[in-house]
Amino acid sequence: MRAVVYRGVNDLRLETVPVPRIGAHELLVKVAVCGVCPTDIKKIQYGTVPPPRIFGHETAGTIVKIGGTTSNFELRTSNFGLRLGDRVALHHHVPCLDCHFCRHHAFAQCATYKRTGITAGFEPAGGGYAEYVRVMPFVLPGVVKIPAKNSFAEGAMLEPVNTVLKAVRRLNLLRGDAVLVAGQGPIGLMFTRLLQLAGARVLATDLLASRLRLARKFGAKRAVLASQLSTLNPQLDAAVVAVPSDAAVHQALQLVRGGGQVLLFAHTRRCAPVEGRETRAERRKALTLDARRLGAPKLSEGGSTLDFSSICLDEKDLIGSYSSDFTLQAEVARLVFSRRLDVRQLITHYFPLAETAKAVALAAQPKPDSLKIMVLAGND
């Protein structure tokens, strides 16, 4: 089969590899489509994991083989509602639901969750940038059937929507609360819509006017350029920072009133690039430019200068959210497949499998007309 293999930093190659062999209690899924996710982009661009691997984890396709011939497995598979020919969305991480972290609903910290249960070959890494993937037994509970009226692309969006809904649920919001969503890319727009559905009054910001127009369609009460935010002096109950901007965090903490929360969603890079490491001067220049774009206060070289006494005295919360919540999966499917959250409006580009490197490059450096990028391994 064809697959796009990660061979090193920014080195993706279309290669021929064996179709994954499956064992008992496993599925073989023919991939239809896979979304391009920022977490995979960072691994590709910064070399945070060793090659070779086949990335791609926002995957949807068709079950073409069920491993094992025992009646017990057929019964177990039927308990998940799965049959040959089913169109399905896959989830590569499923928690144990029993450990210390799971009991505290910190599922992304669970050792079982951290195992990747879907592969197209090599070290398991999602495998969606390939024609077929092997689905391991421990992630079978994460397989979701796609209704006939919905597309494979909608199925592939379940995982990113789940991550956003999880983050929304981490906020201690009341109906009518004013919430800032900084950044109106695909993730930010999902935040805007889900917060609006939860009864929040959303103030959306971005650097691009075109995305602000979309934010209004997704339910934002008000949408302004990020550089104008500091002049508005809004009364905010919470803020979501959906861009990896230290200046936006600093600004949000200043604007959120006492008792409020600031949630970080996009601050996931933990290392400098393997190639082209930033110098201290370059880092300082980038931070200054970031602050100027937002109209925010000047930042220190190491990032935001946070006023911890203000956070304490004003009883503000600075919280993070990462990855998905398995317990929300059924609710996420209802939201997406009913189109209360119409993810079709977020998908702007499809690339064939052979052009996965171009898809990743566009997702890493989006254009004004680009939002969610998809890779097609088959026909939707």
CATH architecture of the largest domain: Alpha-Beta Complex
Determine the CATH topology of the largest domain.
Quinone Oxidoreductase, Chain A, domain 1
Instruction: Report the span from N to C terminus.
Output: 18 Å
Structural class category = alpha/beta
Number of strands: 16
Largest sheet composition: 8 strands, mixed
CATH class of the largest domain: Alpha Beta
Under CATH, the homologous superfamily of the largest domain reads Medium-chain alcohol dehydrogenases, catalytic domain
User: Using only CA atoms, what is the Rg?
Assistant: 21 Å
Number of helices: 14
Helix content: 25-40%
- Work out the strand percent: 15-25%
User: Overall mean pLDDT score?
Assistant: 90
Shape assignment: globular
Low-confidence stretches: 271-277
The domain count comes to: 2
SSE order: EEEHEHEHHEEEHHEHEHEHEHEHHEHEHE
Fold and architecture overview:
Helix 6 packs across helix 7 (186-197), helix 6 crosses helix 13 (329-337) and helix 10 (246-255) packs across helix 11. The chain has 380 residues and is of the alpha/beta class. The chain has 2 domains: 2-145 and 342-376, Quinone Oxidoreductase, Chain A, domain 1 (Alpha-Beta Complex); 164-320, NAD(P)-binding Rossmann-like Domain (Rossmann fold). The strands form 3 sheets. Strands 3, 4, 5, 6, 7, 8, 15 and 16 form an 8-stranded mixed beta sheet that branches. Strands 11-10-9-12-13-14 form a 6-stranded parallel beta sheet, sandwiched between helices. The chain contains 14 helices and 16 strands. It has helices at 38-46, 71-79, 100-103, 111-114, 152-156, 158-170, 186-197, 209-217, 229-232, 246-255, 280-294, 308-313, 329-337, 356-364, and strands at residues 2-8, 11-16, 27-35, 58-66, 87-89, 118-119, 132-135, 144-145, 178-182, 201-206, 222-225, 236-241, 256-264, 317-320, 347-352, 372-376.
